[in-house]
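Fold this complex.
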Amino acid sequence: MADEISDSKPENPKCGHDAARRQFLKQSSVLTALAFTPGPVVQAAAAEWDEKIAAPFEKVGLKLAVNGKSYKLSVEPRVTLLDLLREQLHLTGTKKGCDYGQCGACTVHVDGKRVNSCLALAVMQDGREITTIEGLAKGDDLHPMQEAFIKHDGFQCGYCTPGQIMSAVACIREGKADSEGEIREFMSGNICRCGAYPNIVAAIQEVKTGGQKV
Amino acid sequence: MNQFQYVRPSKPKAAIDARAKDQNSQFIAGGTNLLDLMKRGVMNPERLIDISRLPLDKLERQNNTFRIGSMALNATVADDKQVLEKLPLLAQALNAGASAQLRNMATIGGNMLQRTRCPYFYDTALPCNKREPGSGCGALEGYNRMHAIFGFSDKCIAVHPSDMSVALVALDATVLVSGPKGDRRIPFAELHRLPGDMPQKDTTLETGELITAVEVPEGPFTKNVHYLKVRERASYAFALVSVAAALQLENNIIKDARLAMGGVAHKPWRLTEAEKSLVGKPATEATFQAAAAIAMQGAKAFKHNAYKLKLGPNAIVQALKNATNVA
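Structure:
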């Protein structure tokens, strides 16, 4: 379950306990390491493992801003950003397709850059700003790219669509949407098995030439 | 994905110490290849040392040399105005690799250390000397259409997958490394190794050594360059064969030349003899054909990749034609 708190709310009382537990684990893992390796070197190294340390089974705290809202979360080191978004924050618009960085269904923006959230560890995103498909619309007003996808019927089965739209927005912001060839090249990290590509390209071209702010 | 311990050191030295003292640890930067391999059970580190926030992401240009921090992102370097102007071959190779999303995550240091995409390496049910030394090579007698035609051994016929590395070897780059024993510089051509009897070892790096930067001299190759990548679909796939070509021309006579191939060997494959054959000659198709023939000397194919013996020289000629606008 999400251990989610908006920054505007009071601190979770559990945090103090977690911090103490983490400190204990930090020390105990260092002691374990010391037991198996030559002393001075490990001590020197351990002294500078200062920013984050988490044992395999231990949940580690992190702060994220997702779609403009702040969260304090805790995750195991192996949890990906994709699984965090879907399983803990219940932002299921971001899709899990291949889970190996090959299909683009999981595309989100991290600090304004589009990435494959399936190949990003959540713990490594500490302090960053994430935008998912749920963060594009302003209330009932859809983002121009969402409008254009609807108008040009760029959906088909719809599973790849959130990732396609996140990439399409980034494509224009990156200045890589000046021609059909460039759009196709810079959208190639998003695979659509239905083959909605012509409609998607048309939607991007319309937004690009329409001059709306993306 | 199996469980692992996670540490994020704040200084390079702490990262190096942590790695040097723990054989079961791995550095993680972009993670685009390592997490892929961990999800498939090909690599199972017990500890990840997060180096992504170390202050190693600067891109500087001094005395006609670019110094690119190992944590710089592929997309950042490919889009840099000075790189586009002075090192267009590198920018082209970077943009030929992966997708826009992955180039926003992948780092320069990680790109050169990415592991082969040989299907026998990736499938843990199949034998692979690179993944599990002594288990055999499934590709040798298997479906080897993506595999090497140069420099292989009877232990491994996998190819190195990086496009960027093909450009860097052509441009005479140098890798800057910090390790438990101090700092050293490795000529790019000596970073990757041929498989020999130890295909599990991709590079000449020692345990705990951290790539901190790569230095690339500008050279005279700012105009007549081309990175040609031949793949099974128009974009976002690994190369069957790739060619980095860079020429310095004066009145259509070749003053200096660089040629390297990807997708043909266990390391980015520099074509020194073919380069020499180009110098002093006019930039014509006949010159390029002769160089391509020299480049392919010693190439040997397996059952399913004989097409590379023909595709290779054709790609070389085409890359040189594209670099020089010879029709």
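The first strand of chain B starts at residue 5 and ends at 8.
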